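Take our chain:
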Amino acid sequence: MSETAGELKTTCLYQAHRALGARLVPFGGWNMPVQYSGILNEHRAVRTAAGCFDVSHMGRVEFNGPDCVPYLQRIFTCDVARLQPGQGRYTLICVEDGGILDDTILYCRRPDSFLLVCNASNSPTVLSWLARWKSPDLRGLPEPARRLNGALLWQLDQEWSTVTTTEANVIGGIAASAGVYRGRVRVIRSVDCLAKLLPGEVLVCPATSSAWMMVFQRAGALVADHGSTLSHTAIVAREHGLPAVVATGTATSRLKDGEEVIVDGNLGTVRRCAEA
């Protein structure tokens, strides 16, 4: 993909840059063009027509296989499962304390194929970080151990896999407690407002904790912005037999008090009846 100019790498367009009279400078270990005819001329060209930049020096990493999404969900700050083929997302790779390792763009080519574009000078660091979180090859383990690992991976996938939808009147999330319920919404954002919930209403909240236990006896169904199949909301909803959808991300901001919805705890969706 590149030639060598001293200790600097060059892109596949290096000869074209030279032919066009570019002034080449070191940039992140690459010999890159910084200027052609002059700052003013190039400024006018961009303002009146267009400008092109050689980005073929950027780091590129391909991910392929059925385990792409669960793996990438552990790496990036965006919800990788929501990316559709042909879509890309500006997203971050963070370290354990929340600091940013690199800002990147992640493209979904197919449901089982992704392309990462990272900063050129940061490519070795990114590759090292990706390798750190790669699951080990378990094919050499005894059959019982492989089955146990498969069960754990399945549970993690179930816990963090959200339903994606393009329907404007449907909010997707994680199916947390089975059942289907139709009722009116009551948005409650804090424990101080629990008394507002009327019997049979659909409780829509950021998340629940032990302080919210009283509402499980009055609610007809539960919808939460956050959570997983092992969260407090999901576990207690199952104990009370209430349909529940969690990890919607936006339910408390999109749903309004009094509007009618259908909560499907089997599929992990919340459908707004007024817009159906």
Q: What stands out?
A: The helical segments are 14-19, 39-48, 68-73, 123-132, 143-160, 232-240, 251-254.
